[in-house]
Fold this sequence. Notes:
This protein is an alpha+beta fold. Helices cover about 40% and strands about 15% of the residues. It has helices at about 1-25, 75-85, 100, and strands at about 40-45, 50, 55-60, 65-70. A four-stranded antiparallel β-sheet has the order 1-2-3-4, with helices on one face. Helix 1 crosses helix 2.
Amino acid sequence: MKKNALRALAVSGVAVAAVLGAGGTAFADHVDTPKPSGPPWSESADGLTYCFSGFCDSWDKLDNYVCTTGAPTALVCDAIMLGVRLLPPLNIGDLVPHNIIH
């Protein structure tokens, strides 16, 4: 179990580094996207991801919008959210350049 968690953290770290490198900045603009409330959106058990019609919007543990799992960025978003779920509450949303990950 511990080995899988470390492997998952490494994968998410690589994804975050790739996103930040592609954005050319260590800090992106804050995006104020409110969480959906109620149907037709379904909420994940941890309350960080909301899905509807094949797309999922995700927030960090401090309620900052992180990314949307829609092609072509689904794998990157999933990897970032893996890191968000494994790490303590951090402001990950403001580190993601949303012009390349939305």
